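Lab notebook, bench 4. Still working through the backlog of constructs that have no structural model yet. Next entry is a single chain of 273 residues. Request: give me the structure tokens for it.
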Amino acid sequence: MIYGIFIVVFIIVSFLAFLNFQFKLLSSASKKVRILEYHSISIDGFEDQITISKEKIIEQFDYLKNNHYTILSLSDFEELNNKKQSLPPRSVVLTFDDGFLDNYSELYPLLKQYNFKAVCFIVLGRIGQKADWNGKFVSDNMIMMSKRQLLEVSSHIELGYHTFKHDNYADLTLEEIEKDLQLCQEVIKKEGLNVIPALAYTYGGYYRKKGIKQDQFFKLLEKYGIKYGLRIGNRINVFPFKNKYLIQRIDIRGRDTMEDFKKKLIFGRKKIF
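Model written out:
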């Protein structure tokens, strides 16, 4: 009997621990932040895993504004941390990977219209060029923002690192990653870009296994001044971040419904299990 009760209690405690890990139920609202991950915006209604229609992102922006979400930039975290301040209510960060041209032509005007901020993680070795990396949802007619455009959007868009040529760090040696970071910083200096020290891992790839290699990877990021590393994960973050190189983002896909979007804002994902 006692053994059976112990098993039931263990199951309940484990279930509640899982729910707290996934949804941060025990964390106060003033510590939670949702970091949303987007890529490209279409104007012809096309949608897939990385491309969302302009109509749909407008609907999402309307929802964020009408429901009093506070849109932050990554730079805001540094200021809040330095001042030991809590997050504003319903904090959200909008991030866009790769630096596609439509982030200039479509996203930038929307950010000005809604008075929102965003972070664009740029493939720094492909500025103004075609997207030439392998990817099921990427084609060579997808063009990246030019230097002039990257400079022009600075009032509402922060720029971050997204590797030099869209390599997956999980597939590279530490020496290759260091070379990649060097190339990124050479571009930043040469082009006179203001790029915040934040890196979004391409394909969500990094040294996932805990141990010496992961520690060396994080130390390498620190050596090159990277303050934040963003993965995917589909979970809500708690601020201050427990590990600044394992910040999780919520993947917003083009074919998500509005109900999917609302669930992801609340839970970090559209399915609990």
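Notes after review: The chain is about 40% helix and 20% strand. The CA atoms of residues 40 and 51 lie 5 Å apart. Flag for follow-up if needed.
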